[in-house]
Amino acid sequence: MVGRCLAYAAFVLCCSASLLPAQAQTRAVLELFTSQGCSSCPAADKLLGELAADPTLIPLSLPIDYWDYLGWKDTLSDPLHTTRQKLYSKVRGDRQVYTPQMVVNGSLHALGSDRAAIERAIAQSRQNAALSVPVSISAGNGRLQVAVAGSDGKRGGEVWVAGLAKAITVAIGRGENRGKTITYHNVARRWVKLGAWNGNAESWIVPLRDVAGADIDRAAVLLQTGSAERPSIILGAALAALR
Question: Is pLDDT at 123 greater than 70 in this prediction?
Fold first, then answer.
């Protein structure tokens, strides 16, 4: 038992030490609410792929389902994403829900195809403690290891892991994008809540099978203020390859 405790303590210290430089460089978590049935979305999907090459960003694609009635059912959509987008608008108080919409660090939004507007939102969101808490995630030996640092601010929130598909290419047969083949990047395929966070340092070890799936090859951890019902500012985030 003593050896196991020492090994666990060493892991937490290692995560904290290795995380700080990388986290200092991370500028934003970008959540793109998109749809295969939206004619305005391909430009944003393409831009998200370009942003995914930037190591200072964690871009996520969250396909929604409310345009399915236009003639093509989005093959990647998840009603949880639709709910998350609507809850963001409710928390912000603007009730703006559209595609392609980019939510930046859980607090601001911009047109998903407007790179300049996204950059402005990133800069503005960083003035309000976004990504101020060091977070780490790593995969190995059939498990995920997640560590969240403590914060003097003592802001409450939740820690979530999103299982992601790095790239999925879809040939769209009907609807507004009929005949197009589009690649979607960092597509959220599964969400797992690790627990609540009250400002103290925390860590979790999660069986990889709880997050992994047939097309899931990476995972992002998000430390977010509020709750699943009231998502707000993202205080910390990290990304890891699963294979």
Answer: yes
Per-residue CA distances from 204 to 11, 52, 103, 145 (Å): 11, 26, 27, 6
d(CA 79, CA 108): 21
User: 3-state SS string over 216-237?
Assistant: CCEEEEEEEEEECCEEEEEEEE
The enclosing H or E element of 22 equals helix 2-25
**Residue 220 identity:** A
Cα–Cα distance for residue pair 43/79, rounded to 1 Å: 23
Per the confidence metrics, is the pTM higher than 0.85? yes
pLDDT digit string (tens) for 6-27?
333 333 444 433 333 333 368 9
* Measured distance CA(13)–CA(74) in Å, rounded: 43
Other CB atoms closer than 10 Å to residue 2's CB: what's the count?
6
175: left (phi over 0), alpha (psi -120 to 50) or beta: left
Q: Of 28, 219, 24, 220, give the one whose Cα is nearest residue 105.
A: 28
CB-based contacts of 42: which residues, under 8 Å, 6+ apart? 177, 180, 182
At residue 197, the pLDDT reads 95
